[in-house]
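Deliverable D2.4 — example input (structure tokens):
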């Protein structure tokens, strides 16, 4: 059975990746009907939600578990899932776990329009991950109008050479422009950085710290590079390249 991993006589066998549906609608909605609404209403203050899987960008540190091909759910189904969360469980906070929520403007704008037209936008707040290259004033204004309370995006480094080598496809100028647009829309934002890129030095780390100060996000997160299997960084570690 494709996609199945199992242990037999102490040996672990992985049968490879299973068949990937062309659209996420084929998978149906999460089975929240199986949960006790009274228990959920008491303990669940925030629900995770996904409107799409996959990310087209090629960051060398990301394992891209859903692949680079982006597959989406019909916006109306996403809005309906939010409505059920509000009406069935009394949830007012939703967190979009899309790898890059803003990758397709039409998709996002349709979800935002649905939240506004249904009246849900006035009842909820939600959060999402975005990419500096995918933002514009109209998109951010629509997200704000639809109840978005904060966005977060990866900056990763403040050194031009490190940024160019990581495959994210951004520049410091684009990142600063994105931050300016987000502020103009009245949205708080978070920015993530990584220490430990290939051939990282004390000076490139200081470049990152200085750029983080200049960006001045509402939330700033610093992480340490982890060589996840399936990434370019993992392969470099295995080969002993990049200072690893």
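Example output (designed residues):
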């Amino acid at each position: 059975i494709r996609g199945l991993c199992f242990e037999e006589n102490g040996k672990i066998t992985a049968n490879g990746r299973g068949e990937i549906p062309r659209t996420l609608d084929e998978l149906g909605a999460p089975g929240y009907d199986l949960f006790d609404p009274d228990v959920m209403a008491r303990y669940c203050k925030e629900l995770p939600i996904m409107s799409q899987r996959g990310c087209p960008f090629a960051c060398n540190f990301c394992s891209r578990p859903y692949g680079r091909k982006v597959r989406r759910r019909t916006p109306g189904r996403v809005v309906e899932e939010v409505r059920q969360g509000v009406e069935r469980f009394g949830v007012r906070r939703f967190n979009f776990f899309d790898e890059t929520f803003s990758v397709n403007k039409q998709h996002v704008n349709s979800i935002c329009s649905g939240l506004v037209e249904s009246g849900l936008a006035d009842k909820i707040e939600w959060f999402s991950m975005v990419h500096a290259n995918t933002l514009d004033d109209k998109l951010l204004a629509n997200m704000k109008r639809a109840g978005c309370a904060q966005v977060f995006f990866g900056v990763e480094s403040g050194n031009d050479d490190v940024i160019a080598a990581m495959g994210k496809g951004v520049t410091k100028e684009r990142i600063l422009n994105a931050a300016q647009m987000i502020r103009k829309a009245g949205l708080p934002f978070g920015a993530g950085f990584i220490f430990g890129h290939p051939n990282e030095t004390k000076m490139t780390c200081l470049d990152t710290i200085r750029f983080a100060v200049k960006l001045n996000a509402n939330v700033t997160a610093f992480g340490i590079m982890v060589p996840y299997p399936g990434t370019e960084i993992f392969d470099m570690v295995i080969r002993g390249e990049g200072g690893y």
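The longest strand covers residues 148-156.
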